[in-house]
Design goal:
- This protein is of the alpha+beta class and about 110 residues long.
- The protein has a single domain, classed as Ribosomal protein L17 (50s Ribosomal Protein L17, Chain: A, Alpha-Beta Complex), CATH 3.90.1030.
- It has four helices and three strands.
- Strand 2 (about 90-100) and strand 3 form a beta hairpin.
């Protein structure tokens, strides 16, 4: 499956998605374009799967992947334990009516269940 490029080079794209992940973890829901939400979901669901195992090594993995200790701790201590019994599907994408005003891009809300 082809990943969307978002008109950015590889490093900038990784940083962009990492920032989106950090915002979603801290706020627990964000509104963004549909394409961004669809690119974000599989990456963040892998991190939640790591977080719910509850081992120190997994917290260190989250710290290295997110580059923000506060965000990693929230994912590990608050969000991960909520999904202990869930096998997957931690995020929901809701398509919003209408488009963005300036370019009519399809908008969506991505949130934790």
């Amino acid at each position: 499956m082809n990943q969307p490029k978002f008109n950015r080079k590889k490093g900038a794209r990784r940083s962009f998605l990492k920032n989106l992940m950090q915002n979603l973890i801290m706020k627990e829901k964000i509104e963004t374009t549909e394409t961004r939400a669809k690119a974000l979901r599989p990456k963040l669901e892998r991190l939640v799967t790591i977080a719910k195992k509850g081992q120190l090594a997994n917290l260190r993995i989250l710290n290295s992947r997110l580059d923000n200790k506060r965000v990693a701790q929230k994912l590990f201590y608050e969000i991960g334990p909520k999904y202990k019994d869930r096998a997957g599907g931690y995020l929901r994408i809701i398509k919003l009516a209408g488009g963005r005003k300036r370019d009519a891009a399809k908008m969506a809300r991505i949130e934790f269940l």
